[in-house]
Amino acid sequence: MSHSSAGPEIERLITLLARLPGLGPRSARRAVLHLIRKKAALMVPLAEALDIAARQINPCSQCGNIDASDPCTICASPGRDQSRICVVEQVGDLWALERAGAYRGRYHVLGGVLSALDGVRPDDLRIGGLVARASEEGVSEIILALNANVDGQTTGHYIFDALKGADVQVTSIARGVPVGGELDYLDDGTLTAALVARKQL
């Protein structure tokens, strides 16, 4: 797709923005025009924020959350419940649970789910790290907060088997989460109810 009326610098910006989820070429063009109109108030601060984020933000070596510090702010917080670890697929799910404000323990981000179709194997996920953390002193519960679809359930069963050697209770968030539903799209009330009504596997 060519933007013959725009110079190469603007074309590159449009092409890059069009790769973002939820933005196609048309939305990207509108966004770029808006950025250019608001150059001082928006484009320059955005460029600086992106530069800082690109240089400073990395995955937390403990839980897989993304932050400018390692361990991340959640792992380093003394006020969090150290006895519980909530397992999620992606960082977006962690953010959704934090927004709901119903959970004050720690997290473990898998980085995806097992999928025969996509060729995702156990070694591709952060399952080994979870098993190691589950065996740490003081950890008593692993909460599985995985998406309610086939791959999420398969991954949950695999983790349950992998944790059999650890002295922890394995629970799953209750299915107030609709089947096929993704955590990031749920309202805070549904997420809170699902956490409160978690059950042992």
Task: Summarize the SSE layout with pairings.
Blueprint: H1 8-18, H2 25-37, H3 39-56, E1 58-59, E2 66-67, H4 73-76, E3 81-88, H5 91-100, E4 105-109, H6 127-134, E5 141-144, H7 150-162, E6 169-172, H8 188-196, E7 199-200
Parallel strand pairs: 3-4, 3-5, 5-6
Antiparallel strand pairs: 1-2, 6-7
Q: Helix proportion of residues, in percent?
A: 40-55%
Strand-residue proportion = 5-15%
Tally the structural domains.
2
Q: Reading side by side through the largest sheet, how are the strands ordered?
A: 4-3-5-6-7
Give the CATH topology of the largest domain: Dna Topoisomerase Vi A Subunit, Chain: A, domain 2
CATH class of the largest domain: Alpha Beta
Rough shape?
elongated
- Total strand count, please? 7
